[in-house]
Structure formats: structure tokens, C-alpha cells
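Lecture 7 notes: from sequence to structure.
We start with the chain below.
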Amino acid sequence: MNADVMEIRPMSGCGESVRREAALVFVDGFYRELSFLSPDRDRLADAFAPMINPDAFWLAVRNGAVVGILACSDRTKQAIRLDRERMRKSFGLLKSSIAYRVMKGEFVKGKWYPEGTGYIECVATSSAARRQGVASALLRFVLQHAPYRRYALDLMDTNTEARRLYDKMGFVESKRVREPFGRIKGFKERVFMEWPGGKSDWK
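Predicted C-alpha cells for the same chain:
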């Protein structure tokens, strides 16, 4: 087998040791948003690793290392289970309080969607594996294999690269909502998209 072949697998079957690897990729992907807590990537990964819900995540693994992550949550499970006390111990009272308030709604997805809808979130690629098709492979695999009838997601209005990917995969925009704390987060609107099906239509 070619050592460079990438494999997509559910995180739930990978054991506890992979959690921090996934957290490092999470930090890589969202460092701009997380860096106000700490510029130290290892510190961020140590704090968020226990909050990752392995039952919601899928991993892209290449050469034995996690190079990409994608979460698919639903009405009954969250991808990231925010822990206020852990955040306080890791980042101090002031920063953790601000972060918890801003992030609380970020990781409670899909509550308004009907049963059977998967909510795509936390899509991230390690800095060393960018622009190598990792996110596309993860999304395609999850849409084929996750046990949902339909899918939804949201993204920042400034994230044009992700928007191109979701357009290509057949997601369609359903609405836009002005973002609370937009000035802090660095974007004005959150774009909501839904995937009605049609796997054979992918390009």
C-alpha cells in the first residue's frame, strides 16, 4: 500500500491517544479565532482536547498522522462540549468568560433542524496539509457514509475558500444572519447552507 494514501475514519474507533492530535488540527484550523486566548498552540490544544466529542468527529489520516478533521453533529450531540472551568484554569477568568460567551452558541448546532439532519462543522486541515484536497475528501466521505438523510452547515461570509468547496459539493445557501460579536470575530454575516442530496451530481 502507498504510504501516502489518506484514510478517512470515525474518531470514535481510534482510541483516546488520537484526541490531542485532532485538537492540534482544530487549533491549526481556527488559530485566528482562538489566539486571543493564548498564542501558544500547545496550550490551546491541551485545553480543547478533552472537550472534543469523538462520537461527532471524522479524521483524515496520512502516514499515521491526523491531517484533517470534520465534525458532524445533530440535535442530540455536540462536537465540542465547552467546559467553563477547564477554560478558566487554562486561560484565566477574564479571557475564558469572554470566550465562553462568544463560543457557547458556536458549538450548539442543528437544534432547529429536523431529526435526521447532520450538521457539518469544525472542518480543519493541518497547516502542513493545506490545499491538498483533505477537506474535500473528508466532506465527500462523510456525506456518503454518515447516517443522515440531509445535511446543513454555516460559515463566515468572508470564508470564500470554504464557500467554493460547499458550492462544488452541492450545498445551497438558505439564509444569512447578522453575526453577534461580529466585530470581535472578524465577519459580519453567517451564511447558512443545506445539502438536499444528489451524491451522483458531485463534480
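Points to note: Strands lie at 7-10, 57-62, 65-73, 117-125, 150-156, 172-178, 189-195. The chain has one domain: 7-149.
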